[in-house]
Amino acid sequence: MTDLSADVVIVGAGPVGLTLAMELDRRGVSSLIVEKRRAGEPPNVKCNHVAARSMEIFRGLGIADRIRAQGLPEDYPHSVSYRTTVTGREITCIPIPSTAGRRRGDPGPDTDWPTPEPPHRINQIFLEPILFACALERPGIRIVNEAEVTGFADHGASVAVSVACADGTTLAARGRYLVGCDGGRSQVRKDIGATLDGDAVVQRVQSTYIRAPGLIERMQVPPVWGMFAYNPVRAGVVYSIDGRETWLLHNYLKDDEADFDSVDRDWAIRQILGVDETFEYEVLSKEDWFGRRLVADRLRRGNVFICGDAAHLWVPYAGYGMNAGIADAHNLAMHMGGVFAGWAGEPALDAHEAERLPITEQVSHFAMNHAHEMARKRKAVPPEIDADTPEGDAARARVGRELYDLNVQQYCCAGLNFGYYYEGSPLISGDGTPPPYGMGSFTASTVPGARLPNIQMADGRWLYDVQGAGFALVRTDHAVDAQPLAAAARAAGLPLVVIDLPDAPAPFTEALVLARPDNHIAWRGDTLPRDPAALIDLVRGASLKVAAE
Fold first, then answer.
1. With a threshold of 0.90, does the pTM exceed it?
2. Rounded distance between C-alpha atoms, residue 334 and residue 338, angstroms
């Protein structure tokens, strides 16, 4: 038996596990990833959208440009079109620029967002190999492929992990912590006694990944990233995977359709595409699935944690299953990094659950409510939607406005990227509640718990780039002496950079704003706190007690 050790053992080399490993490596923490698949093997065709917040995280890791260079061709529009069928007439379109279009400054509903990293359309089959290659380049990360965790034992000071390899060999791994990033069927979740609660079935979807080289030629309207077929016979959505000939098609089952097999797949595909039986396409893979809203009741037991789909499953609106998992990883890496660096105490790890679980619950309801509203829309398609008559024109105009207003929120979801906040965290000195947010909208704020507004500084640099991987004290009034707070941080070993922004725009109204490494605000004030050391102890969790099991 071969013995392996690392600071953290991670189960699963999907986007969440790989992001967690790279974020830990950024903080000098080593990791061992155990993955069932072959090295670099892509997943099934899944998430097509990397959110702006995820791209900000990847920017911090130095890999955003590598991700943005892959996916759809750079001139291929990222727009979402609603049509009677994919090859039929257009009802409305949400105009989202291509990668090259963003560089040119083409307009769109998400082009004024407060970030240097807008969202990117790239399927997970292309994203994961990039993340895998980037992880392997880091000396603190080791990946064992074609292997499975068969059990673990939490000994308090460390976790012993048993690993079985496909070649019949076994490994004994050990880490201070174990993190299950092992998906919706997570064994780690089951082993720590966490349970999923919520809505087991929100929708049923028959998905098919196809190659159809002749599809573009049949379209009345130029192809875009997403094309929603909206008609009384069959509703579905088709996403472009390579911008040329491969497509992922989702067929939404109706309430009176008993199960997946009750709907002829080929017939449904042709109805959604708007083609007859002479049109040729190839099925590359198929996967039928239930849209759910399930959230774990806990994210930790002792030294064992869960992240991503292991902790939450919901309808994949706004692409926020994977993206929320990436945010989970970013948050957990900050807390663990502080423990390994010595500036955070072990009890600070409890803040991960206190911060992430409420956000997970909120986002799950956003997604479910949107799914229910879209289901109502699919049931109420006007019979004249494709008629070449004044009544048809009126129906398309009305439906087009409704579909645009509803769906621009999910495809341009500013609120889910920038609006969520941590309220009630034991590591945040709260002085109020940040502004409410929705799926598509938010209000920038410096209320503790909110995301630090990422503004472009006078010298052209973005605030997060200057902050780096540590804490930042943003000072808008140079007359306020920041040295006592900086000195308290140094004494505690807490990494802190002071950033002077004398001309900072609203909502920077306070003289001092203290932001954590995950870019969430921990404290603010017009003067120094009366006891700077006490504030530093609060934000690093030094005064917390170990939670009882």
1. yes
2. 6
